[in-house]
Design a protein that fits this description.
The chain is an alpha/beta fold. The protein has five helices and 13 strands. The protein has a seven-stranded mixed sheet.
């Protein structure tokens, strides 16, 4: 599974613009999924072009929650590619111009082979779970329901192998002990502590980061 970070608070290159928000491209099994869309659609599309990511190559869009820094770029993206299925939290009604829109409530569901949603945990946020040969990879927006609850929601598919995304104020670092890879991004307040505690498992984020897990 390959991950390309398209939108984040920091950038790995002066040619890529950072901003408050998050988006990444998840590529696995021939599927390209856009996870979240950042706050500014023009910025998102500009970073995509710089990174050589063609909006037309994406088949799925997954929006973790309604906060604007995760959903604000959706309409601009759909202006470039309408032939996608959008998996959105139920409160984000009114999405148009997509080939199909799936609104997610609190029930976990399989979106397509190897791609799953945890459902809206605590009615707040859904996380993406991708089944890989090494185990489930969990991608989060801000982890508002709590990292422990999100990892537990992924465990029916196996012990989570990697965690990617914003972890907000999460500080119970023992909960990450079983993970092989951790890429904390966006709103994570304790990135330095996570890097120090798990130096061999830590993956730096930032716009332009490309890695496989």
């Amino acid at each position: 599974m390959k991950v390309t970070i398209l939108y984040d608070n920091e950038s790995q290159s002066p040619n890529l613009q950072s901003d408050w928000g998050f988006s990444c491209l998840v590529s696995h099994g021939g599927v390209n999924l856009l996870f979240d869309t950042g706050a500014d659609g023009a910025l998102l599309l500009r970073n995509m072009r710089t990174l050589g990511v063609d909006p037309g190559s994406i088949q799925e869009v997954f929006v973790s929650h309604v906060h604007f820094d995760h959903s604000g770029g959706l309409s601009s993206f759909l202006g470039e590619n309408q032939d996608v299925r959008v998996c959105a939290p139920d409160p984000l009604r009114g999405i148009r111009s997509a080939r199909e829109v799936v609104y997610v409530d609190n029930k976990p569901a399989e979106l397509r082979r190897d791609f799953f949603t945890t459902g809206l945990l605590e009615g707040l946020e859904q996380s993406l779970v991708v089944r890989t040969e090494r185990g489930p990879v969990v991608v989060v927006g801000c982890a508002h329901p709590g990292v422990e609850a999100i990892l537990e929601a992924a465990r029916p598919l196996g012990e989570p192998y990697a965690l990617i995304g914003g972890l907000h104020e999460f500080a119970a670092l023992d909960a990450l002990q079983s993970l092989s890879y951790i890429c904390p991004t966006h709103c994570t307040q304790h990135i330095a502590e996570i890097r120090s505690r798990y130096p061999d498992r830590f993956i730096p984020g930032g716009v332009g980061a490309v890695f496989e897990v």
